[in-house]
Amino acid sequence: MNLRPYREINRKITKTVMVGNVAVGGKNPISVQSMTNTPTKNIKKTVEQVNKISDAGADIVRISCPDEESTKALKTIIKNVSVPIVADIHFHYKRAIEAAEAGAACLRLNPGNIGSNDRIKSVIDAAKNNNCSMRIGVNAGSLEKRLLNKYKSPCPEALIESAQNGIKILEDNNFTNFKISVKASDIFLTVLAYEGLSKICDYPLHIGITEAGSLKYGTIQSSIGLGKLLWSGIGDTIRVSLSADPVEEVKTAFNILKSLGIRNKGITIISCPSCARQNFDVIETVKIIEQKLDHIKEPISLSIIGCVVNGPGEARHTNIGITGGGNTFHQVYLDGEKYHRMKQKDFINHVIELVENYAKKLKQNV
Predict the structure, then answer these.
(1) Dist CA 145 CA 293 (whole Å)
(2) Which one is predicted more confidently, 152 or 115?
(3) Which of 7, 192, 205, 307 could cross-link with 156 by S-S, CB 3.0 to 4.6 Å?
(4) Looking at 259, 285, 307, which one is the last position of a domain?
(5) The pLDDT value given to residue 366
């Protein structure tokens, strides 16, 4: 049991769309996505990366299909992974048809960029025939020229209108098995677009700050933008876009969800910034423990506080709590109660053992 109380977020209930075996929208858990950055035609490397992303906890993985060779490779890739695959398509309607026939669980495209009505209908037919959902992917960096001429520059209204155009195209062809995104690299533009779109439609929303930047800066940008949307109850599936290893995108996404109490996966460490009162090196200790506990998947809260000022209070609200009590010993709490004292010697290994044993008990109780 996680003893730390969380605020209940009043999430908007949208329609439910299936991406393979993952339900997106409705009252289903907010799913986490990432995207491969290997050449799709390199089947071995792409399969390896998809599996690493999946092992990190991603529910859905997207793969770009820029050419026929990529869609041919997609069929083999899908057979060798266990996570639903979204095929990322731009402009070429044949690639969308090939991806659906290859077994893609979802097609990410912008219907307005696919071409004539006949081409759009052929893509929709392929999706229907292969039980494939779609994502209308609107991006501020690739808005239709008509909308750019109308609004002069990307703005919330332009992104929303583009999404509405895509919705109409699909609905006119009796296809409603889709979700929508309206992304931009600008936080304010993105948030306003999603807020406006959420007010006028009930389709599930895939949220993200596109091209957010490097691991450090992109994490900050995504945390602010996605945090604002999620706190407002907007968002059914998320992707954090970083110029980094896709595994880092997954970790960041789960940390955002965890910080809001939406999905708790792995270790949550509550630790102090340290000061002259600390009875051990908090910063180095937390760094090592976080690395050594990266394999834990069960939701466990761990507080590591260097002294007795805030330590006991924090410890009583976490599954496992460590409070610096002196130069030779520290107090250990378990589920809010004093458990035992622990000597400074072999401190880190003892904490690792405590957490791993706690995780085993959680597994047994499932």
Answers:
(1) 50
(2) 152
(3) 192
(4) 259
(5) 64
| Residue 66 neighbours by CB under 8 Å, 6+ apart | 40, 90, 92, 95
Which domain CATH number covers 315? 3.30.413.10
Rounded to the nearest angstrom, the gap between the alpha carbon of residue 184 and the centroid of all alpha carbons in its chain is: 17
For 30-68, the pLDDT digits (tens) are 999 999 999 999 999 999 999 999 999 999 999 999 999
Give the position of tokens 């690639």. 95
Closest CA to 85 of 54, 62, 66, 117: 62
Bridge partners of 340, per DSSP, are 332
- pTM for the model: 0.90
Q: Is the dihedral of CA 167, 170, 174, 177 positive or negative?
A: negative
**Which ranges in the chain belong to alpha helices (H)?**
43-55, 68-79, 93-102, 117-129, 145-151, 156-172, 187-200, 215-231, 246-259, 282-292, 311-315, 347-365
Q: In angstroms, rounded to a whole number, what is the distance separating the alpha carbons of residues 123 and 192? A: 31
- Structurally, the chain folds into a number of domains equal to 2
The reported pLDDT for the residue numbered 64 is: 96
CA–CA separation, 301 vs 98, rounded Å?
46
Are residues 233 and 89 part of one domain? yes
Longest dimension (CA), the chain: 76
Residues 255-303 pLDDT 10s? 999 999 898 888 888 888 888 778 888 899 899 999 999 888 899 999 8
- CB-CB contact of 87 with 108 (8 Å): yes
Separation of alpha carbons 181 and 209, rounded Å: 10
d(CA 19, CA 292): 33
Range of the domain at 303: 267-365
Does the pLDDT at position 2 exceed 60? Answer: no
Q: Which of 53, 40, 107, 44 is nearest to 82 (CA)?
A: 53
Mean pLDDT of 206-226: 95
Q: How far apart are CA 179 and CA 173, in angstroms?
A: 16
User: Which tokens hold the place of 258?
Assistant: 């965890």
Task: Answer yes or no: is 7 within a domain.
Answer: no
Tokens of residue 79, six digits: 């057979």
The model's confidence at residue 365, banded by pLDDT at 50, 70 and 90, is: confident
Single out the residue in 259, 275, 290 at which a domain terminates: 259
d(CA 310, CA 277): 11
Identify which of 199, 195, 90, 187 has the alpha carbon closest to the alpha carbon of residue 136: 90
